């Protein structure tokens, strides 16, 4: 079976060192005449690396092949050192050799240990993650680099703890979205900004767009499914409530480093509705959301209402709704959240996807599990997905028989789709992700461009972020009194500025926001965070 392979290996053994992968120093010299040596070296390195990585996978059943690839890797390492490439890239060569060492133990007389298998699994996963990183770099290569903050401001004062039970014990069975809580239970972002957190891994949509252009519809929906799951990862360890926006409050996110522009507006107060619209490279994503909450004494159940729509420039569309969220141990024990239910991603082309978020039990040893299938028009299962909503998602081709769950212990059968980013080095008690920490930041020159309705200008939220808790509470109470006007405003015919309701009751972006921003024309945008007439509020009831 390996006859042609062995012939190739014999030729490889007889090759001069300069012809082996990783020894194209002459090529580097020729190409760098027209550009940056560092850039060219990086491009050549990437090509050599993936060539070697593929050798590890394709030649995994041949010990002789392992010997040659290790030899080639040693020479690549030597060339990289001579060319002055960073130590990190040189260490990658050692990673290849390590994987081949563990793989070649398969041919030895003794059985490989569990530790060896684990080491090879980690190495194979490393290769997969590197390949994903390469795809991400390809998608992001045209985006500028924007410097954003890495931590929240240091708090001015030390906050005082408050008993949650003492505040909500009289509201059992009620809708907690209408219960006024002190800022101690808030995190310093609004629900409008929280909505944008679902786009942290928008590179998955960039990749899905790219696969679709190449005619690979299966890879497209697999990446869409991974994106739909990834939005839940930021909820792990987040026990505080985002600020409830005022009627007409907005939030914009112009992130050129991600290639996305996002805009959201609170379009209704009763019921509370948030509408959003996002544009990326080759795709648009929009929807409106409402949370129906129920407090049972020891937990809160949040049921999302609304449909999310993703449309690619080629016309392929996917729609899905979010699953149920529960927050447990409000009175005793460690507070934690869980997501459970069935998510159906409906496509208008070849494929659809069903994902089951498994509900966590008291004795669950492996929580946060998600698994499901991609199906074609005939109902045939063409791919199986599995993973955890707070960590990663994988897939294998076809349907996995047996227990209904894939064998995650065998990396050769699975491909990594998404992996959660590393936690923030300065998360504070809010446990915000590195991405969430940037959402309320006012970067240089931004404030002059914002409308007076943007969440970043909300004073109670800004004071909480700065650790000025008394001032934050005072401002929150003032704005909550102003919120009493919202129902009367809606009843008197108030309409959202940037979204309109269609015949199905869904809100769609009507355009004009970014054009108004370009002209700094915010005529007609109310100063919703400013002072107001208390008597008007009292009379509105």
Quick check: average pLDDT? 78
Could you give the distance between the termini? 83 Å
Indicate the overall shape.
globular
Strand count, sense and closure of the main sheet?
A: 6 strands, antiparallel, barrel
Helix percent reads: 25-40%
**CATH uppermost class of the largest domain:** Mainly Beta
Structural class: alpha+beta
Number of domains: 2
- How many strands in all? 18
| Radius of gyration, whole Å | 27 Å
The amount of beta strand, in percent, is 15-25%
Low-confidence stretches: 1-41, 56-66, 97-124, 403-409, 536-541
Q: Work out the oligomeric state of the chains in this entry.
A: single chain
User: Looking at CATH, which topology of the largest domain would you report?
Assistant: Porin
Helical run tally: 16
What's the CATH architecture of the largest domain? Beta Barrel
- Strands across the major sheet, in which order? 6-7-10-11-9-8
Organism: Gossypium darwinii
Protein name: Oxysterol-binding protein
Family: Belongs to the OSBP family.
Keywords: Coiled coil, Lipid transport, Lipid-binding, Transport
């Amino acid at each position: 079976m390996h006859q042609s392979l062995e012939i190739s290996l014999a030729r490889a053994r007889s090759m001069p060192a300069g012809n082996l992968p990783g020894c194209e120093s002459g090529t580097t010299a020729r190409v760098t005449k027209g550009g940056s040596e560092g850039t060219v070296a990086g491009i050549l390195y990437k090509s050599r690396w993936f060539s070697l990585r593929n050798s590890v996978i394709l030649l995994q059943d041949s010990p002789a092949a392992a010997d040659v690839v290790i030899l080639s890797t040693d020479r690549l390492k030597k060339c990289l050192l001579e060319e002055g490439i960073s130590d990190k890239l040189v260490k990658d060569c050692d990673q290849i050799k390590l994987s081949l060492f563990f793989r070649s133990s398969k041919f030895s007389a003794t059985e490989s240990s569990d530790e060896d298998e684990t080491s090879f699994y980690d190495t194979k996963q490393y290769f997969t993650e590197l390949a994903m990183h390469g795809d991400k770099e390809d998608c992001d290569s045209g985006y500028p680099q924007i410097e954003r903050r890495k931590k929240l401001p240091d708090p001015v004062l030390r906050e005082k703890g408050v008993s949650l039970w003492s505040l909500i014990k009289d509201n059992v069975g009620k809708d907690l979205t209408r219960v006024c809580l002190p800022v101690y239970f808030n995190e310093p972002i609004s629900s409008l900004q929280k909505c944008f957190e679902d786009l942290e891994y928008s590179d998955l949509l960039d990749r899905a767009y790219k696969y679709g252009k190449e005619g690979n519809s299966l890879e497209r929906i697999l990446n869409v499914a991974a994106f739909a799951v990834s939005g839940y990862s930021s909820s792990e360890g987040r026990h505080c409530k985002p600020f409830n926006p005022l009627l007409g409050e907005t939030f914009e996110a112009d992130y050129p480093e991600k290639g996305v522009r996002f805009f959201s507006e609170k379009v209704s107060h009763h019921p509370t509705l948030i509408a959003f619209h996002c544009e990326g490279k080759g795709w648009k994503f929009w929807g409106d959301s409402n949370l129906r909450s129920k407090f049972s004494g020891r937990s809160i159940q949040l049921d999302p209402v609304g449909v999310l729509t993703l449309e690619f420039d080629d016309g392929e569309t996917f729609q899905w709704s979010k699953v149920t969220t529960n927050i447990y141990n409000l009175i005793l024990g460690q507070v934690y959240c869980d997501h459970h239910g069935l998510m159906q991603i409906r496509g208008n082309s070849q494929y659809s996807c069903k994902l089951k978020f498994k509900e966590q039990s008291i004795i669950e040893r492996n929580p946060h599990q998600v698994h499901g299938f991609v199906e074609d028009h005939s109902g045939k299962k063409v791919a199986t997905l599995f993973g955890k909503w707070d960590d990663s998602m994988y897939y294998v081709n076809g349907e996995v028989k047996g227990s209904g769950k894939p064998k995650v212990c065998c990396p050769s059968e699975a491909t990594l789709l998404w992996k959660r980013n590393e936690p923030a080095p300065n998360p504070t008690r809010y446990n915000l992700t590195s991405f969430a920490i940037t959402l309320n930041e006012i970067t240089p020159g931004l404030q002059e461009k914002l409308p007076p309705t943007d969440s970043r200008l909300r004073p109670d939220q800004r004071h909480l972020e700065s650790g000025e808790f008394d001032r934050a509470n005072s401002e929150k109470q003032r704005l909550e009194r102003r919120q009493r006007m919202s129902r009367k405003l809606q009843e008197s015919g108030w309409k959202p500025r940037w979204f309109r309701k269609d015949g199905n009751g869904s809100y769609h972006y009507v355009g004009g926001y970014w054009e108004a921003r370009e002209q700094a024309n915010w005529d007609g945008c109310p100063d919703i965070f400013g002072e107001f007439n208390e008597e008007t509020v009292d009379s509105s009831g």
